[in-house]
Amino acid sequence: MHMNDRKIRVLMAKVGLDGHDVGVKVVARGLADAGMEVIYTGLRQTPQTVVQTAIQEDVDIIGISLLSGAHMVFIPEILRLLKENRAEDINVFCGGVIPVEDIAELKKLGIKEVFVAGSSMKDIVGCVKEAFQARHERQRKGQNDA
Amino acid sequence: MLDAATVSARAESIRNGDVRTLSRSISGIENGDPDAALLMRFLYPFTGNARVVGFTGAPGAGKSSVINEAIQAYLERGLRVAVIAVDPTSEFTGGGVLGDRVRMQVFSDRLYIRSFGAGGCLGGLNTACGQTIALLDAAGFDRILVETVGAGQSEIEIRHYADTVVVVSTPNQGDEIQMLKAGILEIGDVFVLNKCELPGAQQAAAELIEMTHLYAMGRQNRIYADDRSCCGAVAPIGGDRKPGGADGDQTATVEPDIPPVVQVSALEKIGFTEMFEAIERKLRTMEERKLLRGRRRRRTEKYLSDYLVRAFQERTLRDFRSGDTWRRVCDMVENAELDPLSAGERLWENMTGGSE
């Protein structure tokens, strides 16, 4: 089966004490409308439950919504746990209320993209598709090398 | 395509509890990877130990919440549990938001939850469901809980996959006339009435109980008929009843197995010990009466006949439809020189080797 037939699987997650879930639901729906399977975790997850869920669901990318200001605590921990579980091939993007000065730092940590208020759905869909394609090309190459 | 040694190693990892490999292999099954078929060859000999419990019911009845409680009951008793949660995906875009997990907020090393988009599903189940069940079985899970998409009146495909079927309903889903109708109520082995804290619950429970008694006899005869045709003897439950011959004539001596009705409230967390016990008792009874064997036999037959129909459509029929005979007969029907029924028969004879 060709890669283009594969469904893109996305995990949308809310971490920590943060009940603002309108944004995450809008993005989830937008990605679904773009033909993706979007698994939603619900509120108040921990980095551990997010990573465990991502692995069980075999998603291509994780989208984290944060409006609590705790992004510099939770996101490095999620990236660390992905690595610890040999799952660093799963991309991570985030969005919500993120101060501009933190964006460069997050990207340096390995975050694919940061979407703040006013981002377009088209850009988010584009980012996810690109990450998906890159991941599967890497996987294919890895398999051919093996 | 991977070589057999690699796939064999992968099968070994799955049996040793490697979640990453298991998850990727399930994706492989969903995507129709040829590697997944090879993997199944290695793993299938290790299947047959898990018990599959299906949960079906209307959208919003509380299937996910009820499963969340069942998960906890199984984990508390030291079992390993896997959940297959199917949610609808769009016919137009193929995408969808899969939200069953939101209600399942238990995390344990002995728990595995996987969400599926229903895709081009029949009766509320993904086509990869059967093989995923086999994979989870081989991976050593004791119970596999399958949640269908919110079902209407007639999505009853789950009965082919589950050892026992739990139908989740709620108060105020219609009057007793709804209970008389064929469909989903015919396939329940256990009925769970969720939201029993709502007014109307007593009435709904009474109607369900009435319905289960009405259906019990007809249902019993049907199951035993199936069972006889599949694997011979049906053993009566318990030792004190008159045992019949091994030819299945003892049906009359077996008490009708009336599906239990359990009232629960996911909101107030009541009734779930009773629900757990009802499900497990049902599984035990079915085992004692040798009904599980019959169901599994039917599952195999269903899978294989579906496979042949698909293979026939995709291979033989496609070739045949590009041939001259097909075109000629279609022309004749179009010109009213031949009626469709005779045309069908003529094509069948032609295909199966009869002379035209």
State the secondary-structure class of chain B: alpha/beta
Q: What are the segments of chain A in which pLDDT stays under 50 over at least 5 consecutive residues? A: none
User: What's the number of extended β-strand segments of chain A?
Assistant: 5
Instruction: List how many beta strands of chain B DSSP finds.
Output: 8
Biggest β-sheet description of chain A? 5 strands, parallel
> Helix tally of chain B?
11
Q: What would the principal axes of the Cα set say about the shape of chain A?
A: globular
Features:
heterodimer; A: 146 residues; alpha/beta; Rossmann fold; 5-stranded parallel sheet; 5 strands; globular; B: 356 residues; 2 domains; 7-stranded parallel sheet; 11 helices; 8 strands; 46% helix
SSE diagram, text form:
The complex is a heterodimer of chains A (146) and B (356).
Chain A: E1 9-14, H1 22-33, E2 37-40, H2 47-57, E3 61-66, H3 71-84, E4 91-96, H4 100-109, E5 114-116, H5 121-145
Parallel strand pairs in A: 1-2, 1-3, 3-4, 4-5
Helix pairs in contact in A: 2-3
Chain B: H1 4-15, H2 19-30, H3 34-43, E1 51-57, H4 63-76, E2 81-87, E3 96-98, E4 111-117, H5 129-138, E5 143-147, E6 164-169, H6 176-180, E7 190-193, H7 201-231, E8 261-263, H8 272-288, H9 291-321, H10 324-334, H11 340-351
Parallel strand pairs in B: 1-5, 1-6, 2-4, 2-5, 6-7, 7-8
Helix pairs in contact in B: 1-3, 2-3, 4-8, 7-9, 10-11
